[in-house]
Amino acid sequence: MKTRVTVNGEGFERDVEPRMLLSDFLRHELGLTGTNVGCEHGVCGSCTVLLDGEPVRSCTMLAVQSDGRRLTTVEGLACDQKLHGLQEAFTACHGLQCGFCTPGMLMTLLPVYNEARRLSDDEIREVISGNLCRCTGYQQIVEAARQAIDEAADMADSAETEA
Amino acid sequence: MKPPPFEYVVATSVDHAINLVSQDEDAKFLAGGQSLIPLLSLRFASPTLLVDISRLAELRDVHRAGDVLHIGALTRHSDIHQLPLVKQDAPLLSEAAGWVAHSQVRNRGTFGGAIAHSDSAAEFPAVLLAVGATIVTRSADGERRIPCRDFFGSHFQTALRHGELLTGVELPRHAHFNRWGFSEFARRKGDYAIGGAAVNARVDERGRCTHVRAGLIAAGPGPTSAEGLDEALRDRVVDEAAVSEAVARVEGHLNPESNVHGTREYRRAVVAESLRRALLQAFDLDPAGTDRRTA
């Protein structure tokens, strides 16, 4: 079945079997292996991508269901060899150890980062509650999210002051 | 690829979808897929045909119609949680939507899908039982309106027949009640509940309870109403002692199933405690609680 999607701003068209999951489509058909596949039944959150700007689990969606829609994967974050603010913060705060959950964490946090709204630690924990990490104990992930979101909010504030 | 092979058709209208599913006894409707696709991946389900209804805008409608709030089947959990109209007319439902899974699931999962799936551990069936909602369906035989107490059966069974599509739900608007409470416990918030309760009540100007109903989460083999609650609290000025007494009365009827998350006894205690907390919220007896008055 013909499926056309825009991924990280680039258009793709593939003929896929209806039973192919979006996660497998991204990895096997488009070669975008940054999206990690963990539990494959909607529990761990590691395959999170953005569908029209909102986080969804790519393992609980058929590729054919994404026809005509806009996807963002972790490959869409860094720009010209420069890490995204969220990635910088995860590096600075040691927000990852094995890194398996990291793409899902980043994509889950991206809309919050883009909103540039300050969040409490409890709110950050709520945002990432659907993403499992087996290494860090979450503390550094929360710290990384806090740092990135605060920076985004600071930037938004200063932009407002200048305007 | 984990799911078994199936045919896939994007429905262009409700009638188109019903027609396709009616013709094949192993066909299923696909909406948000947040329950169905994991079932496919685990190979617990192997339909021959999936009819994708997720692009039918006519099923995404949320509007007031006289005394009821109509919520279209394709309304997503995230919309139910955030829409001002739902917050205003059905605050218990809006609150409960925030407890359904995690944001990634709420952005895809649909109201109608969660209700048709009829998981005893899910939030929406309990809320519908608490508010006395009506399920609206359509099939080749026409429209049916099913009171939710006649809709939910045990173990994922509902009154839906093959080829019958749940198109929406009608909830009495809050004028019918003025208090609500919601409490749930899971090991990780967003996971399937170990126990929970949704409470809907009305208190008159003299402070007496004139009506109270609760839907219970993970309290039995299917979505369950709290039996004996209304009789225990009706016409009383509800205090903590009355709540404890009523909960004890309900607890005797509870029949949760033992599983990896706890024994029957443990789960019964969790459901009873959730009901107690939700009742305390509803009757303004929760010292840490936020305001749950709606009128």
Automatic annotation (TrEMBL), chain A:
Say which species the protein is native to. Answer: Nocardioides furvisabuli
Q: Which InterPro entries match?
A: 2Fe-2S-bd, 2Fe-2S-bd_dom_sf, 2Fe-2S_ferredoxin-like_sf, 2Fe-2S_ferredoxin-type, 2Fe2S_fd_BS, Beta-grasp_dom_sf, Diverse_Oxidoreductases
Quote the protein name from its UniProt record. Glyceraldehyde dehydrogenase subunit gamma
Domain named 2Fe-2S ferredoxin-type: residues: 1-77
What Pfam families does the record point to?
Fer2_2
Keywords assigned by UniProt? Answer: 2Fe-2S, Iron, Iron-sulfur, Metal-binding, Oxidoreductase
